[in-house]
Amino acid sequence: MSLDWDDSYDFDMSPIETTESSTQTSPISEEEELLLKEHIQFHSEMKDFLERALLKGQNEGVLALRVFIKNKPKKPKTSLNRLFLEDNSPQNDETESSTHEYLKTKLTQESLPIFSSLSLSDSESWNTVSEKIKNTNQRCQRGSGVCLSGHIQLGHLLEAGAKLYRDEKLLGRAEGTFDEWIRKNVQMSSRHARKLRAVARVIQPFPRLHNLALSLTEVYQRLPSIRRVLEIQEYKEFWSLAS
């Protein structure tokens, strides 16, 4: 019997040709760390799935197994090979100046009013922030072509919520993980939540970046380049302006 497993998620560990510069020790980026965690979670879910598939086949037979394996875990969209072994994305050739100029061409004055009043204070409680997360996510889902500022606000709320949830657990008022709470109460994958949080951490302090006419996915892919732009004082001041 052939179950036709898709093993394209495997990471090719064959020898890699390196240059002197590429062998220098440097920390992985936040985006690379997030991707590694996604793959760790995927392989953990796949291990559990295969163990249950084995029991299903042993106890109920091949027909039940064939139905069961149709719902196997979905692998991350970005492969480890693509991120760590390939270096051919368009933004890799961009300088800080060219990235800055590109972002300027994407500036728009349009924004969604529903997000303009969202703010957080240090005294916000978990109950308050959790409701804001739910409401903001619902607004994002209802909106067609939601602007980047909405995603940033949601990511900012998720970032604050993660910290408050940890406090709630320490006080014995919450169980499980924040990812589990998100999946149950917001119907959002932990992968998407991490993407929103990563974007918000970089973009939130810079009001002008909120008005970029770019998709969340493109901004997420460009985070390393955007971070380098914001390390230059002149560009940092430009994007710090409210309009």
From TrEMBL:
Domain of life: Eukaryota
Region (Disordered): 1-28
Biased composition (Polar residues): 16-28
Compositionally skewed regions (Acidic residues) per UniProt: 1-10
Protein name: Uncharacterized protein
Naturally occurring in which organism (per UniProt): Desmophyllum pertusum
